[in-house]
Amino acid sequence: MRIQVTRSGGFLGAPRASVLETEGRPDAPHIHALAREALGACTRTPTFGVPDGFHYTISVDGRSPVHCAEPQLTDSQSDLIALVLAQGD
Amino acid sequence: MTVPVFCGIVPPHILEHLVAHAEDDAVREAAERSLALDALNRVHRAEAPSTPEGIVRERVLDTAERTVCDDHHTQRLPGRVVRTEGAAPVPDQTVDRAYDGLGATFDFYLAAYARHSIDGRGLPLDATVHYGQRYDNAFWNGERMIFGDGDGTLFNDFTVSVDVIGHELTHGVTQYSAGLDYQDQSGALNESVSDVFGSLVKQYSLKQTADQADWLIGAGLLAPGVHGVALRSMKAPGTAYDDPNLGQDPQPATMAGYVDTSDDNGGVHLNSGIPNHAFYLAATAIGGFAWEKTGQIWYDVLTGGTLPASADFATFAAATVAAAGARYGAAEVAAVRDAWVQVGVVAPA
Fold it and tell me: Which listed site, A65, B105, B176, B213, has its alpha carbon 20 to 30 Å from A45?
């Protein structure tokens, strides 16, 4: 599974993107389950968000991106975003 | 994988039907989430009063009512209360900086514009610090200010700059006054007035004139080793930082550099450089303390009750020229108009 996370907004407004490939990772089943749960809580269109909050766009295996925004992130969304931004390329 | 998600254009009554009747748990939960988000967003828009503020104004105190909470890096708001109004300083300097910044912003709005707190009616000021882990941001969630500690590599603790605190609380002022839509040009104006009054909070606390001020947003926020002086510069947008890891400050100073993008709600943090620079130009042309005349003009427009929530740069510029004429004289009108001409929003006469 190839998970792309793009972050935009924030106080600075500077975008940041990262891609995580799960193939070959021992924790791949865990990440796949996390991604399914996280994407289930996303919307197909960007949400209004809050001033200076981060907006996230998540795309899995090249499929249509889905969206979520602070501060209404679920635990699974927060965990997936943190994982991809920290460990992705 | 099939994931049930609903577009923002699905009407609330259909979502409500799905919540009540959908047999598939996933569909029902997705509908519930969409409804919750939709309701939140409508609340944010609805909180801007439809009539000028303070028509019925009860007597409010001239002192802030502050509460600072500690999230303990959990991202579970509001966190535990660690300092309330009037309480002594605590060992955690982040808590005290947030407390002092809330106070400085409250004092500024009261002294400069006789405004009691962000809603004009003495709203308690709440903040949460130590939000998340190595969290590189500060934001206003419609109810409270939220500060991250920064990652220590690119950003320091977001409470270090009083103008950042003033910036966030001014999002609250805008929410309770003009209610500028947080997208495209109205969103860039929303961002800009937060930078304007955030900077004025700092200038007021330091008693600096327009010529003495640094006109920087977030000075001290960049971690040691990062090439830059701040996050934004109102004096010279696009010059605040230029760093291998952070990139180059992307803000335009004039309409010639206007950025068309769908990111960042339509580039609200990018194009805000244009009205930011207009304010700087007007304030330095008028001279003296920037919060007195120029700040008053911008404040009159923000809180006057006639600026549309969807105002673009040209609408806002015209309103500031009119406000300068209503309160001051020909020199101030000319200074404000010239500022907007210089940034390319108003055509030269």
Answer: B176
Task: Give residue B125's domain range.
Answer: 66-160
- Spatial distance between the Cα atoms of B322 and B280, rounded to a whole number of angstroms: 18
Q: Which of residues 62-121 of B touch A (CB under 8 A)?
A: 75, 77
User: A34 to chain B: which residues are within 8 Å by CB?
Assistant: none
Cα Dmax for chain B: 68
Tracing tokens 């207009």 back to the chain, one arrives at B278
Q: Do A72 and B40 touch (CB under 8 A)?
A: yes
B132-184 confidence digits (pLDDT tens): 888 999 999 989 999 999 999 999 999 999 999 999 999 999 999 999 999 99
Q: Give the closest residue to B170 by CA, choosing from A65, A77, A51, A15.
A: A51
Same domain, B75 and B191: no
Q: Do A12 and B231 touch (CB under 8 A)?
A: yes
As a whole number, mean pLDDT of residues B239-256 equals 95
- Do B140 and B199 have their domain in common? no
Provide the pLDDT for residue B142: 87
Q: What is the pTM of this model?
A: 0.85
Q: What is the pLDDT of residues B271-312, one digit of tens each?
A: 999 999 999 999 999 999 999 999 999 999 999 999 999 999
Q: Are B21 and B40 in contact (CB under 8 A)?
A: no
Residues B232 and B317 in one domain: yes
**Model confidence at B214: pLDDT above 60:** yes
Retrieve residue B234's tokens: 């109102």
**Which pLDDT score is estimated for A13?**
87
- CATH number of the domain to which B124 belongs: 3.10.170.10
Q: Does B324 score more than 90 pLDDT?
A: yes
In chain A, the residue whose alpha carbon lies closest to the alpha carbon of B249 is A14
What secondary structure does DSSP assign to B112-152, as a single string?
HH---TTTSS-PPEEEEEEESSS---EEE-SS-EEEE---S
- Select from B160, B176, B197 the last residue of a domain: B160
A64 at the B interface (CB within 8 A)? no
Residue that wins the pLDDT comparison between B37 and B349: B349
Inter-chain residue contact A53 with B141, CB threshold 8 Å:
yes
Pick from B104, B125, B120: nearest CA to B60: B120
* CA distance linking residue B134 with residue B3, whole number of Å: 31
d(CA B315, CA B321): 10
Q: Describe the strand order of the beta sheet including A66-69 as a list of residue ranges.
A: A16-21, A2-9, A54-60, A66-69
Question: Across all residues in chain B, what is the average pLDDT?
Answer: 88
